[in-house]
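Write out this protein's structure.
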Amino acid sequence: MDGARRAVICLPTYDERENLAPIVAAIHAAVPEVDVLVVDDASPDGTGALADALAARDPRVKVLHRAGKQGLGKAYLAAFAWALERDYGLVLEMDADFSHDPAHLPALLAAARDADLVLGSRYVEGGGTVSWGLGRRLVSRGGSAYARAVLGVRVRDLTGGFKCFRREVLEAIDLPSVECTGYAFQIELTYRALRRGFRVVEVPITFHDRRVGQSKMSRGIVLEAMGKVWSMRFSRFARGVPAPGAPPPDARSVARGPDPR
């Protein structure tokens, strides 16, 4: 893999010992050429020690230890900084609990050949969710629709966390100034990329409930995020100037396949 296509998958963990080895194996079965960066927040269950053992056996596995649990957004920001320092051309993010199926990784990487940011989308044709109740489906779809309306963008799945960035996107969206660390973190990154004029493409994925352990999502987290989209709407990025020669920001958002409305 050449430098521009050299890829790393950022995999934040907190008490994911039972999932870690299987998810790393599944990732490398799907995309053997990529590296995996495990970002562990001092998991009490020993996930960090297991990550070190995996890294000792496989040079494609890297580990970033953090002092304690500080939120998913901060884990990703630390991972992105680590990846940029090491000259990866593509930086991916995904969950460690199999809610994001590694089988979708080749499609995300393929789409990154002509897109700046690729979103694994539950809400374009061919995408979906498995084993979700009506309440969770309404919260998720409603949250994306609400953020889309407030921010004035056409991206169908603003809240998803299965993404592939070109390094130029992460370099341009001023990561140290990112305000959100929870559920709204994903919305903020995509919005900043759009406002900078980058081409954002959605590819369909099927989202599964986690295999082991309990979901870290709650209704309170979602409600907090919905308040934060207003601060995004009036932030300096909302007034940002696209890259030279780029079309208007939201014209760069593309869904693979027709809108499923």
